[in-house]
Amino acid sequence: MGDAGTQGATLVHARRRAAMSFLCVGAGIALAHAGLDAPSWAWLTGSLACAAAAAVPRAAATRIGLCLALVLLGGGWFTVRVLERPIGALDPPAGGAIVTLAGVATTSARELPPPDAPLARFRSESPRWVFDLDADALVSDAGDRAARGRVRVRAGGQERPAVRAGDRVRLTGVLRAIPPPRNPGDDDARLLASQRGVRATLTLTDGTLVEPDAGGRGWAGAVRSAWLRALDGARTRASDVVDRASGDSPRARFLLRGLLLGEYDPGEREARDAFARVGLAHALSISGFHLAVMAGLTLLFVRLTGERGRLEPLLVAGAVVGYACLVPASSPILRSAAMVLVLLLAESFGRRYDRLTILGWTAVALLAWRPMDLWSLGFQLSVGLTATLLWLGERFDASLWGDTLRGLSSPRELGVWAVVRAKVRLSVSAGVLCWLVSMPVLMHALGLVSPSAVPATVVLTPLIVLVLWGGYAALLVGAAAPGLAGWSSGVLARLCDLVVAGVEVLDALPGASVRVPPTSAAWAAGATLFVLAFARWGSVRRARWWVGLGAVLCWLGVEWTLADRLNPLGRSDVVLRIDMLDVGDGTSMLVRSGDDAMLWDVGGPVRSGLRSDLGRACTALGVSRVRTLAMTHPDADHYARAEQAPALGVRRVLVSARFASQAATPGSGASGALAALREGGAEVFVLHAGDTFAIGAARVTVLSPPADAPWTQDNDHSLVAVLEAPVRGGVRRVLLTGDIMDDAIARLRGVVPGPLDVLEVPHHGSAREASIEFVGALSPRVVLQSTGPLRANDPRWEAVRAGEGRVWLCTAERGWSRVDIHADGRLTWRTRRD
Q: Which terminus, N or C, of the chain has the lesser number of Cβ atoms within 10 Å?
């Protein structure tokens, strides 16, 4: 008993050391990411000082010193790895410049998949090709200059650029820095790119600007090029094998590519979203689950040849490494491979290492490798759920089904059904535990609860395992003879179709997935800790756990009650708020008053999914429900994201007569937009001049177009509305104009009530004489210009821009912009770049 107690205490201490090290390193990374501005040498010097202080022979001082040393080490490493630019790194000039670069292509040129949203086809975009270049020289007439860094190259044109992985090339294009975040809720692409070593983007008009470069090769360069070319060839063959194995079934191709290659098929967007809604999104992104299945299958084949002892985990590790080389390199795949390899390596030593402790130290190493993964949902769930199962899996299974005596009977003595029943129970308990632990995190990250996740996992995971077995076998056979992979297509296609059909059936059930209002990171962390504590120490028979559950639910209720309020708990006196999102050459504005909200146009990027760009921005702005959507006119740059609006709860759609007229034509963009909104439960209303409605305390009056407008241009038929917000002693007025041009502007002269405080500049700021005179005559205090770089800072607007006390907010210059009208009449504003 004494030895057992000593071993138990040692195990607990080992786990605590790993957990505290992970938490301290993560805290340091978070502090550096949050803007604790300090050079790397300061972080690292402080870390050394704290480590030295930990040598004091006092337990408390040692613990505190080591923890502080790890925190500072994490911050310093993040600064070195992500924030600071290496000496000699490629430094793109501000605003971009035409340059010639030389380097080695690390990937072959491939076509960018088209946007996956149905309305994307109504926005014309030329074909784009993309590949990565490991640049090493900046070429000029004065000679080559060393400039190292990975560059993402994008090329236009109809023909694929003649670039293969391993080719040394010289290419000319526009070099630009990675742009900063554009809107609330956007990830900072600069940090993610810096972690990958990507320093800039290079845009080429077409592939003819790429030419071979004979310089700088040497034997090391030749070996590297040969390796890159062989790796690319193996991945191309694997992709071909998967396509052959899927036969003629699009669903099988979608599922096999997701399961085996971790690739997303844009043509099966609905199926992908259904997987995510029922809680099986992880199946389409290669994770530890996939590699564990492959490792188990490999181990089975190895043991068929006899007992191999310590050689077994090494052979399995070799299979994992080979598989990781076959599939496109990405964070989830490499992270999962690293976790599996570390566990296999520990097993190969023949010692009884604690898996949970090993996982903790592996997580620290993964953070050192990719510090930005600390904010990755995939990293959080893969590490967190694996640790939960290792720590609490057996205990939770026993508490759910009751304790069972293990090891007293063999599977043969128990019988087949007893074994199956035990496996099903274990699957259910693991699924319930993972669902409970992950639910708060998913509510915060995606605004989604999936009650169907447990039955989906229990019912469909065995089928997914069968598909994986068949797919791995096809890859193994196809690696030698790709033509043979097609022999398995009949069975695999039927299994894949069955899995996808099962997901769609579960997704169609009432309550299979529920969208919820935004929740804070603090609540998600608190709720997760409560679930873990209950799974470890809790009991439904003890009142204190019910009190704890009530506190967590009350906290959630308070957050949801205040979620969509413009002035929660009276913290501000804003009467009307306008958030102008940065969507390039398009318009998308969020107008709020009180507890009500309206979207004024929904143009912009047409990517969609469980959490679209529009949904992320609204959530980051504290809005989960938008009941009203106004689409000014039937141009795609004002309605392209209409299909994303139903997820926000839009129930009232306001359009002009011209929009409704074009929507009557089947197959048109306007028709598709209204169809998506009606399918989501919205009702469509056609507005004319003189119509009024309310958004919270603000009164909205439509000024144009009149019912009998004879104008030929769609732009002139844009909805134009004035918003009047009540303030002390009067009202403040906002004029929203859409894309009106000369005819509509001529009619509006003398119609717009004054004085005007905020104005949306017509047609994104196109410098038409009528528009310039119109804005100058109205003399607004704040001008909103939603546009891309081509219309930004046009000198023809200079006289109007320079009006006394005028503020000109342009998305191309400042990103997302906000204007607030306060109860005392004050106007305040802020932008993304301020």
A: N
CA Rg value for the chain: 30
For residue 595, which amino acid is it?
D
Longest dimension (CA), the chain: 95
Angle between helix 2-33 and helix 355-369 axes, rounded to 10 deg: 20
Per-residue b/e over 47-60, b at no fewer than 16 CB within 10 Å? beebbeebeeeeee
- Say if residues 62 and 56 touch (Cβ distance below 8 Å): yes
Q: Give residues with Cβ within 8 angstroms of 440, minimum separation 6.
A: 519, 523, 524, 525, 527, 528, 531
Pull the structure tokens for residue 360: 């903790």
Residue 134: predicted pLDDT: 92
Which regions of 547-657 does DSSP assign to beta strands (E)? 574-580, 588-593, 596-602, 628-631, 652-655
Q: Which DSSP string do the residues of 165-210 spell out, in sequence order?
A: TT-EEEEEEEEEPPPPP-STT---HHHHHHHHTEEEEEEESSGGGE
Helix/strand/coil (H/E/C) assignment for every residue in 95-142: CCEEEEEEEEECCCCEECCCCCCHHHHHCCCCCCEEEEEEEEEEECCC
Partners of 100 in the β-ladder: 139, 172
pLDDT tens digits for range 411-442: 555 566 776 777 778 788 888 888 899 999 98
Phi, psi (rounded to 5 degrees) for 623: -125, 125
Burial annotation 126-157 (CB, 10 A radius, 16+ → b, else e): eeebebbbbbbbbbeeeeeeebbbbbbbebbb
Which residues make Cβ contacts (< 8 Å) with residue 346, sequence separation at least 6?
A: 353, 355, 358
Please report which confidence band the pLDDT of residue 776 belongs to, taking 50, 70 and 90 as the band edges.
very high
- The alpha carbon of residue 19 and the mean position of all alpha carbons in its chain are separated, in whole angstroms, by 27
Q: Which amino acid is at 615?
A: G
* H-run or E-run covering 827: strand 827-831
Mean pLDDT confidence for 162-178: 90
State if pTM tops 0.90.
no
Q: Average pLDDT, whole number, for the chain? A: 85
What's the rounded Cα separation, in Å, for the pair 658 and 294? Answer: 57
pLDDT tens per residue across span 242-252: 888 887 888 88
Tokens at residue 571, please? 């913290």
Cis peptide before 86 (omega within 30 of 0): no
CB half-sphere exposure, 499, CA atoms < 13 A: 32
Q: Which of 156-170, 476-490, 535-549 has the weakest average pLDDT?
A: 476-490
| Pairwise CA distance, residues 178 & 192, whole Å | 10
Using CA atoms, how far residue 498 sits from 467, 501, 503, in Å, is: 10, 5, 9
Q: What are phi and psi of 323, to 5 degrees?
A: -65, -40
CA 753 to chain centre: 43
Residues 553-605: tens digit of each pLDDT: 999 999 998 888 888 776 678 999 999 999 989 999 999 999 999 999 998 87
Name the percent of the chain in helix, strand, coil, to the closest 5: 55, 15, 30
